[in-house]
Amino acid sequence: MKNNLPIFIALLLALIQMPVYADMTLEIVTQGAQLTPIAILPFAGDGVGSHQLSAVIAADLKRSGLFDPLNTGGVSPAPADVEGVNWDAWQAQHANFVVVGNIQEEPATHHIKLNFRLVELPNRMAHLNLSFDGSADQYRMVAHHAADAILENITGYKGMFSSRIAYITQHGSAHSLKVADSDGFNEQSMLNTNEPILSPKWSPDGQRMAYVTFELNRPMVVVQTLATGVRHVVARYKGSNSAPAWTPDGRHLAVVLTKDGHSQIYRVSIDGSQAPERLLSSGGIDTEPYFSPDGQTLYFTSDRDGGPQIYRIALSDLRGSPERLTFGSNYAVSPRLSPDGKQLAYIQRDGGAFHVMLMDLATKQTQPMTDTQLDESPTFAPNGKYLLYSTQDGGRGVLAIVSTDGRIRQKLKTQTGDVYEPVWGPLQ
Amino acid sequence: MKKALLALAVTSVLAACSSTPTEQTSAPVAQKTAAPVAVAPAQPMAKEPVTISLYPAKGVGGALGQRTIHYAFDKYTVTDEYMPVVDAHGDFLLSHGAAKVTLQGNCDERGSREYNLGLGQRRADSVRKILMAKGVKDSQIETVSFGKEKPVNPGHDAAAWAENRRTDIVYQGE
Fold first, then answer.
1. Do A142 and A173 share a domain, yes or no?
2. 32-91 in B: which are within 8 Å (CB) of A?
3. A 270-299 residues with CB < 8 A to B
4. Nearest CA-CA distance, residue B146 and chain A, Å
5. CB of B111 within 8 Å of any CB in chain A?
6. Contact A287/B147, CB-based, under 8 Å?
7. Is A125 in the same domain as A167?
8. Which of A65, A309, A422, B127 has a CA positioned 20 to 30 A from the CA of residue A151?
């Protein structure tokens, strides 16, 4: 948060529940955080229900755990611009910011354009005067872009709402690979199968997904184009094929193959034109490759020293000795780099529990991020400020979010089945 | 080998395989028929593809009736407790050259899915190594890891986890 921000000190522990998915409930726990009161006024020409863009923006900001969106339901008629705003009323409610604007719709195409201003109180200083537009089927994404602009202006955080997430759902033997907006809306199945699906990974441009499927009884790596559903096999060699990781240029995947024995890391081209190139050689299990954002360093999990630990090695020096990064436990897995490459999230076993950990790569200092059990698959938000991961709640796999400062925690609770292997995609 | 422990099934699929490519008769099946133990007297004469199901009875007393090897957390070494099971299946495979097994490595639900996929592969490989050291042919053994994706016990406690850390020996045709 910027230091010059007027701040309303919230309750020490605020618990908010709100419906997200049809069958998911979001529970947000904010500890010691300062919530910024903000009034997102209904837009002139706004939609209703899930089409109400002012409500989409308010829900986004609320989920960030940084804002307290005030109830604006009684505002009627909705002002189209600053002239119609009852400033004194919002100042009386301690609003630090007011968002006001209008939506214009092209009648023939239903193409919409949102124009809005972000105004700070009490001095009524205009911060933003922006427009976003989109086609009718992207109306919620228009609001997510506006929410990202508001978030960045007030907190300095980069955007995150105009992104999508992917995850696996399981009901009995029915497995689905699903994609949804970051708020859980517009959920779509990419694949339904009675065999396990693992390790979905967004291509850097967000247009394709690599994942592992057991559809042909043993694990193979495929890449699927989201828009068309067309997919092709990238690795189906003898034995096991798994753990895809995109190179930042989107042209190659690191994968784990057992074609030459035990699990080792190889690089394959997306178009399958080159034979797999073995990147590392060890006597143990090498898996979970992950490229640094600059593409220069390979992070991975290996049990070469006994139990699984996290290592890294420069791609320019693959014959050198990998640097071991984790020492705090006999079990550390699932390395993921923050978008700026400065932080490492991973899973560590502590006694009987498995927690999300965060390491500052400059100082190698680590801290546990979660108090849940059996955590898996941490994945950074596009702005690096939140970690989405899977854990268990009541014996079921659920998704959870923790801010990288540890103060904001969310749980996405499902009514049935399991959800796991979440992965946060790039901004749209 | 006690005959009581054996369920020997020879299925001739003369009628059912009319669409099977004929090359199969000359390659893999010819090797099967050259196996040390004659599976069925009629087989050398068969000109059409023949599929063979050959496996010891499951769950019957003795080591050969057992199909599962269990492991400690994050371990893939076959312990002394399970050596008689692996030995018995090794002897069976040695004396039944036409029999084939798939070794399916599995893990409990804790930890990373991908690391568990690697660990399950190690578990299956640990059994394979012992079998091959006994002289079982490479062509008789396949391995696959299901990681933590196919638990036999859906529970979330130590007993369920112990049950799920396993290599299953599955005979072809079983």
1. no
2. 74
3. 285-288
4. 8
5. yes
6. no
7. no
8. A422
Return d(Cα A358, Cα A368) in angstroms, integer. Answer: 6
Q: Are A212 and A254 in contact (CB under 8 A)?
A: no
* Residue contact B113–A198, C-beta within 8 A: yes
Does the CB of B168 have a partner CB in chain A at under 8 Å? no
The pTM (predicted TM-score) of the whole model is 0.86
A357-387 tens-digit pLDDT: 999 999 999 999 998 889 999 999 999 999 9
User: Does residue A2 belong to any structural domain of this protein?
Assistant: no
Band (B62; pLDDT cuts 50, 70, 90) = confident
Determine if residue A360 is left, alpha or beta; phi over 0 gives left, psi from -120 to 50 gives alpha, anything else beta. beta
Interval A273-296: pLDDT, tens:
889 999 999 999 999 999 999 999
| CATH number for A116 | 3.40.50.10070
Inter-chain residue contact A285 with B143, CB threshold 8 Å: no
Tell me if A153 sits within 8 A of A118, measured CB to CB.
yes
Specify whether A76 is located in the same domain as A212: no
3-state secondary structure of B85: helix
Q: Measuring CA to CA, how many Å separate A95 from each of A8, A18, A153, A352?
A: 9, 22, 16, 45
Q: Which of A155, A181, A213 is the last residue of a domain?
A: A155
The complex's ipTM works out to: 0.90
Separation of alpha carbons A343 and B110, rounded Å: 24
Cβ–Cβ of A198/B74 closer than 8 Å? Answer: no
User: Under a CB-based contact definition with an 8 Å cutoff, are residues B105 and B145 in contact?
Assistant: yes
CB proximity A198 to B under 8 Å: yes
Closest B-chain CA to A196: B149
Task: Please count the structural domains in chain B.
Answer: 1
Overall domain count for chain A: 2
Nearest Cβ partner of A354 from B111, B117, B146? B111
Kindly report the number of other CB atoms within 10 A of residue A279's CB atom.
18
CA distance A34 to A97: 15
Query: B127 φ, ψ to 5°?
Result: -75, -40
